[in-house]
Amino acid sequence: MNFNLSEAIEVLEKTPRTLESFLLGLSEGWLHGNEGEGTWNTMQIIDHLIDGETTNWIPRLQMILEDGESKSFPPFDRFAHLQQKPEQTLVEKIKEFKRLREDNITKLKVLMDSENKLEQTGIHAAFGVVKARELISTWVVHDLTHITQIVRVMAKRYRLDVGPWEEYLGVLKK
Amino acid sequence: MNFNLSEAIEVLEKTPRTLESFLLGLSEGWLHGNEGEGTWNTMQIIDHLIDGETTNWIPRLQMILEDGESKSFPPFDRFAHLQQKPEQTLVEKIKEFKRLREDNITKLKVLMDSENKLEQTGIHAAFGVVKARELISTWVVHDLTHITQIVRVMAKRYRLDVGPWEEYLGVLKK
Description:
Chain A is mostly helical.
């Protein structure tokens, strides 16, 4: 295991700024592509990240610390965001995500004020017993998953444009 | 086809800043992992991006414009960077990449001063005839490929730490 709370926080803190550097100022054509029916575009992926901040990570961590194994987490609706705020611009979405993330990191630091709490357990409806440190690791990897998804969706816009080089470009095959 | 030079440049311009936002300030533990034997860590991936700036993209574009189909590109050694500058820090590597990329975007704009040039052709040793716009599209997708690679390598550091959530985290399976 490699987990260490301050290193996890390093990554969680960077995600909003990484999205800003990568996305702000791009033409619309880069932002509205997806990977085919039933897949998400960049705007939808950011809505999903916002959703995680409000309903998933910190609420579940609080449940682990307060309720332990006495009740299981309410399910996280991974599709809820598809009905949300279509009128928000990309700039507004990233700003909202950034604000929520900052608040949640503050809460995370307050909640996890001792190393022992990393080993506390709760109940996931599908997986059974899970640990606080597994939830926080998952939060980090979830960010990284969705950053790769955003980058991959953008790359696929040029799938035909690259001509024969497609063969060398692994990202186009995922 | 979606290719349009100014949109391609938008992405090429952002890559160094995205790498800065994503990587600068991370602990060493995040930067030295790879995906197993024969795979690259973050430092090696940035060396490879630097290599592309010096020996691949602009030199090949110049060959297309000057030599057309009369000679084929010298091969791009995709492993050359593995022997390079191990003493450089991450900050120095990103700074070098940023400087080279800025120069190359300036050159790109000078070289591609008319739309017609996008259709000019050269010879790739393995693929045969390729177009200037295919080369430039590939440059963009190559950046995106290696951004996803860096993010994926980092995610894999927590493969065991996420516990049962591994099942939901696609990035860990790639």
